[in-house]
Amino acid sequence: MNENEKRKYIKGRKLGEGTYANVYLGQLRTDPAVLVAIKKMKVQREQDGIAYDAVRELKFLQELHHPNIVELLSVFNSKDQNLNLVLEYLPLGDLESLIRDTDRVRYGAADIKAWMGMLTRAVWFCHDNFVLHRDIKPNNLLIAADGEVKLADFGLARSFADPGVNMTHMVITRWYRPPELLFGCRSYSGAVDVWSVGLVFAELIIRTPFLPGNSEVDQINRICQAIGTPTEDNWPGVSSLRSYAVPAEVYPVPDKKAWMDRFGGVGAEGVDLLCKTLVLDPNKRITAREMLEHRWWRTDPKPTRKEDLPRSKDDGAKKMGADLGRRPGAVEDENRGSKVARRLDFGAK
Amino acid sequence: MSRKAAMGGARQPVGGATTTTTTTSTISTEDMCPVCKTIRYLNKDMEFLINPECYHSMCSNCVNRLFNDGPNQCPYAGCNKTLRRKGFRSAFFGDLGVEREVDIRRRVAAVFNQGEDDFETTTDYNNYLQMVEDLTFDLVFGTDRKRQEAEATLQRWEAEHTAQIEQNRRQGREADEMARRRLRAEKDAARLRRIEAVREAEEEKRERALTREAELDSIAQAPEGQGSSRVQLKRRGLAAAAGVNSAAPVATAAATDVGKLSIRGLKEKKKAVVHEGPYDPFGGLDFTPSRYRLGPDLKHQRIEDLRATMRYNPGGFRFEDWTAQLMFEAFAGLGVFVEDEKEVGIGLEAGRVASIGAGIAAVGDRMELD
Ligand SMILES: Nc1ncnc2c1ncn2[C@@H]1O[C@H](COP(=O)(O)OP(=O)(O)OP(=O)(O)O)[C@@H](O)[C@H]1O
Ligand SMILES: [Zn+2]
Ligand SMILES: [Zn+2]
């Protein structure tokens, strides 16, 4: 059975590399026009939990079938006993490369609404099926040939816990990690994913990570400054969380106007939704379902049709290190001074 | 910009006031070397050279004679500049004052090389240009004191400027290094997160084993009725049936719904309809449970007890999520028919289910995650 499954595909060039897997392009042997992505888990060493990673991904992907969640097509073992997941091929890169390519990719409120709709539906679907994703970020949102955004990488997912069961707080990439996890909370809910969704929303608007903390402490500081210091007033019980610590200066929760100034590009309703996803107290944070019931989706502009959404200009080839930006020391010599009105140029070179 | 044009520019701000300088003698175009008094028409090939240290003009013979053996003092009376042979060149402009001004401007321009982009506003930029112009004027036509001051400013700026360049270069390297280090740290953190998630799973498994033991113990010890209700709760949902009205008959679902394999059971999903109507944020899906309806009086002692202890939830754990999950799982099996699943599978065929099974077998008992 395994052999049959394996022989169904021809493995092609490498598409990308993650911490735990190499991803290859694959073709159906019987119909080479059908492309797939084959995610080959790296050598499995028990103590590293690589096997778990694969199994988590396998376990959840085989249960979750939704247009906005990457589709698992098959599974097989290769000779070296590595697990291979056959996934639908998503050729148009990820949301991060679109956000970062500010020079070449232009998009607007209608596009953001379309992407956010797809992301929110994916998260809502997970939560309604009692699954926490726990690693939502722009580069885990891959884009299909027709423009559909798909939530991928379920390597950290888990099902909802029973009451009182401890979960790890060491999940979600730092910039997208909610305050309850930063405070070491071990009994949490889908609200952790909603916070990440809110930060992806903010990043889509300002086209740079909203809270790029460079340590956990810095992350908490940034949250306090941008969204307000979590206190017993705005979040009852917060000070009892295991590693609750905030900067001495208490920052107020910013008012609507402050949010509008920075994120007004998506309109007042959009900003209202954004604020609700970034509420400090997870009990008061909007749920994924409530997000979909929000007025923003029904106000103008209407979300862009997925076929018409802006696309990456990279033509599949991922731009390496694009996020490093231009080095501060690099000076643009060309055209320097060509616009100068009054300076006299004596050919000093 | 050609040098001719440059000259025009150079003269403009100063109004040709070349005679005010102390170090520049205006050369009368007399063809006599002021040093050896040779006259040009006696020596047609005679060439005049200047050295930008002092712009004192002399013939090439004098230059060779005086400076071929090394640095020497300028032969002009009262000029104490030390000159080198290689500093001499023929003057480009007939007017050595202009020659000097052009040289000064070139030097100033090399140091004050900011562009308009470097400034916040055009006004700032214009002010900067004015400052540079004033400084240049002082260097060219200023009194000794003004000139020295301007010279000092220029040199200080030059020093700072090279420091700036050097600093920029260093910063560039540091930024690279920091980016590299950040990337590495992020990688480590990602790895740690995954390991931590594994620990979580194991801990949970152990805890579950422990509770199971405890449950068994309590059954052994408790009076019959109580004990068994606990076991039922552990099997999830079944116990909660009190207060639930079993709703729609269930046989309809599985056969029509392609794309779901129920290992734990998946919610009812209606196929998304293609539409150009108003935007549906839910994408055409509806998850209202169709197999059961929750009565308003849903109560179970054990659940109520737990709810009481869980009231205080700063981390956001939602009790309703849990009860919803209990109910869902209790009814999940009802819509699944083994025969249908064999055909429909996850949208492929039975072979796929089997191969997924094989994959799981390969990773062995580490599979147990929940
Ligand atoms: N279905 C797919 N179609 C096309 N490319 C894919 C697909 N899945 C993954 N990739 C590419 O492979 C890369 C690595 O995949 P992925 O992020 O899933 O691996 P990982 O080990 O889980 O990663 P991480 O280090 O982020 O946890 C991705 O960045 C992406 O470029
Ligand atoms: Zn001479
Ligand atoms: Zn001299």
UniProtKB/TrEMBL annotation, chain A:
Is Nucleotide-binding among this UniProt entry's keywords?
yes
Q: Which residues bind ATP?
A: 15-23, 39-40
Identify a single GO molecular function assigned to this protein. Answer: cyclin-dependent protein serine/threonine kinase activity
Q: Which domain of life is it from?
A: Eukaryota
* GO cellular component assignments: cytoplasm; transcription factor TFIIK complex
What reaction(s) does this enzyme catalyze?
Answer: L-threonyl-[protein] + ATP = O-phospho-L-threonyl-[protein] + ADP + H(+); L-seryl-[protein] + ATP = O-phospho-L-seryl-[protein] + ADP + H(+)
- SUPFAM superfamilies registered for this protein in UniProt: Protein kinase-like (PK-like) (SSF56112)
| UniProt record, GO biological process | positive regulation of transcription by RNA polymerase II
Instruction: Report the InterPro entries cross-referenced here.
Output: CDK (IPR050108), CDK7 (IPR037770), Kinase-like_dom_sf (IPR011009), Prot_kinase_dom (IPR000719), Protein_kinase_ATP_BS (IPR017441), Ser/Thr_kinase_AS (IPR008271)
Instruction: List the active site.
Output: 135
Locate the Protein kinase domain: which residues? 9-297
Checking Pfam families in the record gives: Pkinase
Q: Which family does it belong to?
A: Belongs to the protein kinase superfamily. CMGC Ser/Thr protein kinase family. CDC2/CDKX subfamily.
The name on file for this protein is: Kinase-like domain-containing protein
Origin species: Echria macrotheca
TrEMBL record, chain B:
List cellular component terms (GO). Answer: transcription factor TFIIH holo complex
Q: Specify where the region named Disordered lies, as residue ranges.
A: 1-24
Tell me which SUPFAM superfamilies the record gives: RING/U-box
The record's section on InterPro entries has:
MAT1/Tfb3, MAT1_centre, Znf_RING, Znf_RING/FYVE/PHD, Znf_RING_CS
Under NCBIfam families, the record lists:
cdk7 (TIGR00570)
This chain's protein is named RNA polymerase II transcription factor B subunit 3
In this protein, which residues make up the domain named RING-type?
Answer: 33-75
Q: Where does the UniProt annotation locate this protein? A: Nucleus
Ranges in a coiled coil: 147-212
Per its record, what are the GO molecular function terms? Answer: cyclin-dependent protein serine/threonine kinase activator activity; zinc ion binding
Q: Which GO terms describe its biological process?
A: nucleotide-excision repair; regulation of transcription by RNA polymerase II
Per its UniProt record, what PANTHER family does this chain match?
CDK-ACTIVATING KINASE ASSEMBLY FACTOR MAT1
Species assigned in the record = Echria macrotheca
**Top-level taxon of origin:** Eukaryota
Q: Which UniProt keywords apply?
A: Coiled coil, Metal-binding, Nucleus, Zinc, Zinc-finger
